[in-house]
Amino acid sequence: xxxxxxxxxxxxxxxxxxxxxxxxxxxxxxxxxxxxxxxxxxxxxxxxxxxxxxxxxxxxxxxxxxxxxxxxxxxxxxxxxxxxxxxxxxxxxxxxxxxxxxxxxxxxxxxxxxxxxxxxxxxxxxxxxxxxxxxxxxxxxxxxxxxxxxxxxxxxxxxxxxxxxxxxxxxxxxxxxxxxxxxxxxxxxxxxxxxxxxxxxxxxxxxxxxxxxxxxxxxxxxxxxxxxxxxxxxxxxxxxxxxxxxxxxxxxxxxxxxx
Length: 259
Known about the structure:
five-stranded mixed β-sheet, rod-shaped, endonuclease activity
């Protein structure tokens, strides 16, 4: 008659599966314990060398330690307890890492800034302002608009061609809120925009606005003036591009041409 043999099951039956990360953490913790034990023994040895009385106490305690180690069953229990504690520490650390990763994954991304946010042209540097104006021209149909400003530009900062073939010449004045383009600025531009650059549409864009004499001169010479309000309306799509407000080539605008 066969007698069934009862097999003892350990408390950690669920640990049969191999977990590389868990095992790695366990070995790391064991290495720390071994290193810590070595440092402790070294400290004990150095202290014993400095204090003979302490060395006598250590020597007298060695037989008791040997008796404890000889009791294998108790030693196995101690080893099992230490191993169990090490696994618990590793499991808690892994659980905290997983919780932190899950928390980071649940944090919603920062909301992107709206793409149609108005541009503060007065905060741009002069070259960036010229590029921004050229970009508005390209957006509204002047595909060849480009920045040409620089030394020897003779008053032209942006040149382009409208969809109906007219030549656009623009001068950009990036001024502060307390500085306005004056009559002399308009006179210099008026002396070159038609005679030198053959403009069909002459435009001055100023972030600081214009003085009254400058506006009077511009009206006499058929030069369009865009201050902060007109620039904002053009940029945000609330107004047509400047060349649509200008008279076609060869047909002076009724408001600009006087008696």
